[in-house]
Specification:
By secondary structure, this protein is α/β, with parallel strands linked by helices. The protein is built from 27 helices and 37 strands. Helix content is about 30%, strand content about 25%. Helix 23 packs across helix 26.
Length: about 850
Amino acid sequence: MKHVVTGLLAHVDAGKTTLSEAILYKSGTLRHMGRVDHQDAFLDYDEQERNRGITIYSKQASLEWKDIHLDFVDTPGHVDFSSEMERTLQVLDYAILIISGIDGIQAHTETIWNLLKAYEIPVFIFVNKMDISYDTKDEIMEKLKSQLDSNCIDFMQTDAMFYEEVSMSEDTLLEKYLQQDTITKDDIASAIERRFIFPVYFGSALKLEGIENLLDGISTYITNKEYSSEFGAKIYKVTYDEQGNRLAHVKVTGGTLQAKTKLSETEKVDQIRIYKGNKFQVVQEVKAGDLCVIKGLKELQAGDGLGFEENNQISYATPVMNYHMVLPKEVDAFDMMRKLKTFMEEDPQLHISYHELENEIRVQIMGEVQMEILKHKIFQKLGVLISFDEGRVNYKETILNTVEGVGHFEPLRHYAEVHLLLEPLPQGSGIQVDSDISMDLLDRHWQRLILSHIKEKEHIGVLVGAPIADMKITLISGKSHVKHTDAGDFRQATYRAIRQGLRKAESILLEPYYQFQLTIPTNYMSRAIFDLENMNATFRIADQQEKITIIKGEAAVAKMQSYPITLRSYTQGKGKLQCNVNGYRPCENMEEVIMKMNYDPDRDIRNSCDSVFCVHGSGFHVPWNMVEQYMHIPLRNQTIKKDPVRKVSHKVDDAELKRVFESIYGKEKVKKRTTIKKRPEVKSTIVESVKILPECILVDGYNMIFGWNTLKQLAKEHMDAAKHQLINTLNNYQGYRKCEIILVFDAYKRKQHDTSITKEGNIHVVYTKTSQTADSYIEMTTHKLAKDYRVRVATSDGLEQLIVIGQGAVRISALAFEKEIMACHAMEIKEYEKNQPVFRNQSLEDIRKFHKN
């Protein structure tokens, strides 16, 4: 039997799930045909799917019809879950595209068609709901040919006109038809497989009309795929079952896979399952072409390959809205983020990130339906009731000119310098990475490391802190140190080179655009056109009838974001808006958005634009606009000027050498015999005593508060109380150690705040000025005090520790400093008890006299 994997794809409400029920029922797989409106569909078994009447998760089923064994996947049709649909495309041999006979070709239908074209998947088209369609077959075929492909052919009637139309789809078929006056089924099947022909079938899934024609056509015109004998497989999805087991959904693309097979040192196949709906059968072996589910894989993700298959990064539709996840007061955001990682594994399109400075979780979501599903899923699995704010648009940034960015990282005993060329690319190109540097200048392993650092994270721009896009980043120069360079140095230098280049370049802001289809009653057309013009949308009237008008166009997401509510209001719920993301364009109100976002790249300490250099054993910061004055490698278009040196050779004999020697040192004297004198007695030398400098400790206040367990718990309830507790503790410590202590709190988030220094007890408390961090203040103060004090810096910030060591200071972590203070406190108590007098057999009056004296 022919064995193929096919997928059912459609715009939402086209009848895709109903068709899957009809196919399973007609093939004898199901005894009873379920219905979406009755909430008993075989493949829509999830509670949310049945309540909402839509498919949310892709499901697998299999059937046999005549000479074919068909594994098919029912995919979601709603645009909010397009990533779930797109994941399945990489494992499909054929696709069945369902189009509603009532709604016709919709916006998301065109998106699916373009994806099928990109993945080169042969397509069978089934036009559903023909029993209630307003259009005839001929009218629908005309739309299919004009909007999808001219080679969409009606396969319901195989007459002479049919063969003529088939022959016109390809030159080889036409030549064969002219010579033999016929075309074989194998020829047609080959043309379908190579996407020269797209068969079209008509029917009604609900009434079981046209289902047998579709299955017969698939049986007749599908070709069996050949697979390699070598093992290979693709992971297209990761889920978790009710027991919490991690499941990898796989298509075997070569050889066989057996249970208990060890795929690597860390990955082993514990169990192989074949799913049909929500039920599965455990098998010991699967062969090439099979869809299965593997239990036991711990780290492999969707898109990873097994065996000879390579890892494939799938490009999903990008969410254009970003929302702040509002948590209950008793829920810790960091702990919640750890629990949400399994949700991202199941849906890679769900971008969830934790922002440490704001202590908040942000989520990128496609739309309202996905948001409601996520709320329900989190409550169901974690028992946490969450909400979201109104959200904001996901902007991107790019550059208009070519620049060379320089990053240098050289604290004491560290070294790396990187030069990157940043070039603008056409819209939609994404980020491209390349290397244009000789191995004589920088070793291959350092080059690979730098390129991996460019790719490993989503770099942000300098306008609003949005991700960069449409840019080529090329490594053009770099330098390492034989002894002092390690991998982390090049990471810091690479990040800083990108940021420094972005600061030099002319950047622009990009905003997402929707491709929309607006269906409204004709009497509301003038109002709709007025609204679209106010949005600066580009549009056209695609179809106008007596009662219904269809408008298609493009508009900025920011301006159309809330329009569905307005549409429902003025059309009394009769209007319908369908939107698909259609790339990014230059932002029309860029200055307004930049002012509203209020992003300052110089205050973004986690994405620094500056570099770190070292002079005389001391590291120091260099602002981004002065880096090129300190860099060790010239820019690509610069050359180092050297004074020309003229080499002149002379032949010199012994007589000339003797003359020159005597002119400098005089004539050589004859040495007389001398007696060896007794060495005079060496007088004792006076060694000057070394001056011991007083000690000064610089303390990063917030670092201690969040590093000490006692203060961390207190800060959650009241931050000021934690500050006072820290000040009192340091005063006691100072009284015992008799050293200078400067406690620093940063105020870089406060507006219009100058540096304030107060003395509380025996220590100095500093609040930095606006836009200045505690790290920068400590670094500056360390440099000033290093000559007169033995400076120690108490901080757990890794980068700050490296910098203060370069300034000549000694660093101590927050945990070690806390232990030191506790030890001093214990010693102080012991000394106090030791110095107290002991009264034995004395009267109370004697003890009172002692204390008075």
